[in-house]
């Protein structure tokens, strides 16, 4: 018969291991943007197989079509669908239009293809957006939400993706606010909707764009290379920032909190670094330094200086090189033959609920020790 003290030691060791596992850093989910419409790409099924092999758990699909949703069947990959802004007037004017879109693009596939969220439009409130779209945004998301409820898709979040330029001022983070012309007529009603439906605030964060515009920003600050510049202190909060991504994320968090919606989770729907044909820093080497630094920082579980839990998810822009608003820039992290330009390991990201499970098991072991 085993020595009772040995059993106790085993139980203690198991409990300690489980509790340590619950305390291990777990950052946000890390995904990638995939545009199947880019010319010259492999079959969608081949891309999905490659994504699964790479450990990708989250994918953002701009302008998704049924063929792409079909390719993700039984993949286990969580999908964020981004509808083109051009659809907003039709979605806003008629709820049946929203039901029809969902019936063709989501209902035949979900949940076998895991649609987690839908973004209605992209950067609709930015200065480059078509005039008149802003007034369609709120009724469009409302109709999409109502149509989801009609069709039994209540677990799918509805939101819209913003660009960083909706902030003015944007930095330092503690002073960031939404543009005065947007805050009350457009942003507040959207925040009301997101809060009422439990949906995240979606935004693109591109430190590369800030670096392009401001020559005073050190390259190391933009590339997560802390040792090369030290830190920047926010004079309003005294918080210290060691990378530009965190500063931009906290600027958005501060602006949302200033409107009274500090509980909203934030998802970064696009971030990355071009690997060719832009500035002299748009090279494969710089792109690797940014994306590698991004992934390592997110996996550290440190969050941001202003929000301990940080952002809920981050999508790297993008999987393959394709047309962008500046045609000379290439943002893809993979070549069209499915080989990677540089290593980004997606597997292991995202917290899930394992910490709670581990803590519960540890407590159960401690209870057993009492008997």
UniProtKB/TrEMBL annotation:
Keywords: Glycosidase, Hydrolase, Membrane, Signal, Transmembrane, Transmembrane helix. The gene is LOC103704181. Belongs to the glycosyl hydrolase 17 family. InterPro entries: GH, Glyco_hydro_17, Glyco_hydro_17_plant. This is Glucan endo-1,3-beta-glucosidase. The keyword Hydrolase applies. The chain crosses the membrane at residues 344-370. Residues 1-23 form the signal peptide. GO terms for biological process: carbohydrate metabolic process. GO terms for molecular function: hydrolase activity, hydrolyzing O-glycosyl compounds. Pfam families: Glyco_hydro_17. The lineage of its organism: Eukaryota, Viridiplantae, Streptophyta, Embryophyta, Tracheophyta.
């Amino acid at each position: 018969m085993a020595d009772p003290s040995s059993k106790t030691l085993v139980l203690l060791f198991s409990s300690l291991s489980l509790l340590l596992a619950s305390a291990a850093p777990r950052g946000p989910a890390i995904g990638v943007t995939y545009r199947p419409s880019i010319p010259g790409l492999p079959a969608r099924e081949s891309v999905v197989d490659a994504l699964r092999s790479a450990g990708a758990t989250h994918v953002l699909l701009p302008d998704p079509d049924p063929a792409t949703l079909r390719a993700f069947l039984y993949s286990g990959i969580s999908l964020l669908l981004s509808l083109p802004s051009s659809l907003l007037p039709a979605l806003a004017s008629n709820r049946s239009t929203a039901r029809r879109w969902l019936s063709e693009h989501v209902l035949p596939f979900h949940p076998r293809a895991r649609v987690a969220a839908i973004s209605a439009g992209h950067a609709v409130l930015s200065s480059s957006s078509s005039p008149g779209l802003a007034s369609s945004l709120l009724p469009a998301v409302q109709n999409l939400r109502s149509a989801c409820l009609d069709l039994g898709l209540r677990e799918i979040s509805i939101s819209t993706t913003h660009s960083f330029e909706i902030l003015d001022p944007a930095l330092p983070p503690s002073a960031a606010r939404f543009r005065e012309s947007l805050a009350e007529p457009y942003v507040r009603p959207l925040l009301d909707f997101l809060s009422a439906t439990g949906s995240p605030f979606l935004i693109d964060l591109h430190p590369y764009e800030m670096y392009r515009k401001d020559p005073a920003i050190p390259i190391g600050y933009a590339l997560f290379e802390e040792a090369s510049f030290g830190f920047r202190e926010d004079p309003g909060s005294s918080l210290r920032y060691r990378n530009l991504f965190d500063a931009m994320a906290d600027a958005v968090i501060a602006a949302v909190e200033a409107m009274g919606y500090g509980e909203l989770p934030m998802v970064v729907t696009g971030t990355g670094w071009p690997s060719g044909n832009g500035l002299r820093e748009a090279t494969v080497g710089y792109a690797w330094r940014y994306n590698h630094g991004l992934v390592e920082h997110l996996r550290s579980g440190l969050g941001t200086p202003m929000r301990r839990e940080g952002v809920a998810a981050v999508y790297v822009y993008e999987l393959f090189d394709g047309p962008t608003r500046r045609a000379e820039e290439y943002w893809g992290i993979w070549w069209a033959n499915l080989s990677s330009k540089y290593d980004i390991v997606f597997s292991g990201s995202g917290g899930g609920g394992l910490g709670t499970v581990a803590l519960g098991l540890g407590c159960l072991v401690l209870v057993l020790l009492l008997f």
